[in-house]
User: Fold this.
Amino acid sequence: MTNTTPRLDHAVNGYIAAVHREVVRCVALVRHGFDADDIAQDIALEVARRPEVIMARYPDPVVYARRRTKHAGISFDRRERAQRSEGVRLRRGADGLLTPGRPYVSGNATGPEGGAELFATARDLAAEFDVATVAFLDALESLRRCCVGVSHADLHELLLVDGCGYTVLEVARMKGQARETVSRRLNATRRRIRQHRDAMPEPQESPA
Amino acid sequence: MSSHPAPVTLRYRPGADVLSGVIHLGEVGALRTDSPDADTSVEWAEVADGTAAGHPLLHRFHFVFAAARFAEGRLPLPAALQPVVESLITTAHLALHEVDDPLARARAVANAITTVPRTQLHRTALPALCASAAPPPAGQAAAVSRSLRQVAEAVHRRDPDESTDHLARLLRELGATVSHPRGLAAPGTAAATAAAARATPTLTDHQRHHFHDALEQLLAPANWPAADTTLQHLLTSLEAPTR
Assistant:
């Protein structure tokens, strides 16, 4: 292990700060919002985790920052796209408002495109008790029929991501599996639930 | 155009001394990014209601070495943001004082939310963010960059300690910044370098004076030939044997 001295600490901190600044200089011209700062932060943390290796290979932080920036933007976009597809995690839109990342296959919240909820599984406290109870039981039955053939473990994964806001990566770590594996399984579960829902007959309007 | 104050989100990284801000103008039209100098990036937005056509408003900004520029009164921000930025920078630096862990310093961030009157966001109200200086004479960016690196080496070789390490790092960063990509002034890096030169005890008053002159001349690319000459004088002074 390297014995650190104040002078070495300052050298490492100075290197990391210079990398951060240079990435901001390069990226701020082509990115919107706080993207430049986010990308710079990613690269700075990468240096902070293994400074000896990077500083030995690239003595000039500006050279390292310019070289690293070329690929960092692509990685950042890829991660953003992955997170956009992850459940109810809220994202800040261009207008500064928070919106859900993707349409839900369960729950009571309206999807980002608007429209009706998929299932009204929460009781409507303002409705008559008997009407609310019937609607609730109908919704539960619809949900049960949509989930036919889906294992309990798969439903649990879906609940963690779409219902509780965990990222796919976090669920993958819980399961000890690769993110891609869990992501594929989640997509298959969502697809199967949607197929069942599409095959269901439209609910009959109750006579007034 | 709406007369309501616009909400602003500020983000400051004390480890790197970078200030970023996004002004929430609602629905916006065309965006245009400007870089009046190497340490500043701003984005102007046409507001979508059309009543401010031809008068873009400030929509986003990044300032490198914000604290160093603020200390010299050279941070061109709307007046309403100045006190918030001052307290943000001050509190962030106080919180990070005596923290040496690289990861902790790299992660440190301070955020603030405030509002700014829309009249202060017009391009005409922020001339320092619009001016694009004329490029330096051909070959001057490379010459100045080389001189700055030579001075950095000389400073470091003369008295290798923490203060000269810091000054040499900033001189190298300034050298790399002014020469990329087309020779832009770097007022933030120059301000930080000037502060580091003032705080380096091993420099003589004469050398500090040279530093001050060279860094002032570097603020305008038209003066870079003179800056290069001053840097060469400084280099001679630094390389002279000490008695």
